[in-house]
Amino acid sequence: MKRVILFFFFLLLIKANISVSQSGLSDAIVTGTSVGHSVTFIDPHTNQSRNVNAKLFLGTVDGNVTKFYCVDITRTISFPDSCHHDSAISSSQIVYILNNYYPYNPNPVGKLSNLDKEVAATQVALWHYSDGVDANTVSNDNTIKNRALDIIADADANAGSTTVATTMEILPSMDPDAFYVRTLDQNSNPMAISGIQLSISQGALSADSVDTSLPTGESPDVYVSGTSTGTIYAEAQALIPQGITYTCPGSQRLVLALPVIGTLRVEEDWGALPVELASFNANVSGRNVILNWTTSSESNNAGFDIERRSAEGIEWTKVGNVAGNGTSTLLHDYSFTDRNVLTGKYNYRLKQTDYNGNYEYHNLTSEINVGTPNSFSLKQNYPNPFNPTTKIDFDIAVDGNVKLTVYNSSGKEIATLVNEFKTSGYHSVTFDARNISSGIYYYKLESNGVSKVMKMTLLK
């Protein structure tokens, strides 16, 4: 009876914090394109008609052959390309499409007889979710357009909270001092993997390498000693599921279209954790990202730091903090709005800290896409009045040359803050006025034949 009590207590203490190959461990080489068809549509980033080849990409992950789709129409790619690394998990709709349409499902419902057009329609549907492409604007082929619209309607209706398959996980053993590793295929069937490397952030493990075997896909128990808390890591050549994105600075972002064997790492916290998250999600409103999360229990919870990084970046930046509720067994809802975020794709995470300074991370499982504005706009500087610096935000709806100039009250130009080509998006610039005197100043934004002037006040 004592063992049973210990087991259920341990289940309450150990909490999954799985990170599916989030560390750029697997490398992709893109060698060329496969089936597909050219597509003409309105590019939402430029509002201009554009013709592109909507095709599957051929390549490898860690030397193993696989295929990719594109989830980024703002950049180009050249072949061979060998700088892509795994970066994040795709949105629910993208993962749903990859799970249910070609090539993973070779015969989806409603499949077109022309495979080139089937692939092109699938690619357009993916671009709808990654870049905001309106499939109704496809103008060169009604068959592709209608098929893409059907795929989008299916994903909207049925994707729900679909996420990538879990193919390796660390689980609690019946013994409260031990854990084991389980490996699965993309359909959650047990899979045997050899040479899984294990480590822990503190303390010691009874083994630094294990194998999983059939019929369970499970490893022998591994015992933890010398610590009551820590993070366990497992790394292996295991199955990476479709839906994982691969990025390379300056090149198109790709998404894995077929599962492939590659370097996979998972991690799990060991020991009592101060906070249990019931949910964590995000919504985008213009250039604001609204994060919402709910805790089911808290112990000595001081609060949460909200951190953000570019989907192609490495460094995390703290963007805010929300106080916790100490110790509680009730549900608590939290919200934070990350305001005035520039156009781009981002990852978010929570850094939860207790009153003793201990902390843990909770990652948002999908990328957040802050799109482009619909109109030209110049914002009021802030702070205003200011001394000696102030920030000026402006929105550019169409790519083009942009000029932002500061004038004094006599109309004399005193500073040029921007004078260059800018892509459509949300932009910011800082004006440093430490070398000019107090007074009323005007700033003027010009782009694509449109201009706007605003007033600001410098008080020293």
Structural account:
The chain has helices at 2-13, 92-100, 115-131, 142-158, and strands at 15-16, 27-43, 48-61, 64-70, 81-89, 168-172, 178-183, 196-200, 204-205, 209-210, 222-225, 230-240, 244-247, 254-256, 260-270, 275-285, 288-310, 317-328, 332-338, 344-354, 359-363, 368-370, 377-378, 389-396, 400-408, 413-422, 425-432, 439-447, 450-458. The protein is mainly beta and 460 residues long. It has three domains: 1-271, no CATH class; 275-370, Immunoglobulin-like (Sandwich); 377-458, Immunoglobulin-like (Sandwich). The strands form six sheets. Strands 16, 17, 18, 19, 20, 21 and 22 form a seven-stranded antiparallel beta sheet that branches. A six-stranded antiparallel barrel has the order 2-3-4-14-13-5. Strand 28 and strand 29 form a beta hairpin. The N and C termini lie far apart (75 Å). The model is unreliable at 1-23 (pLDDT under 50).
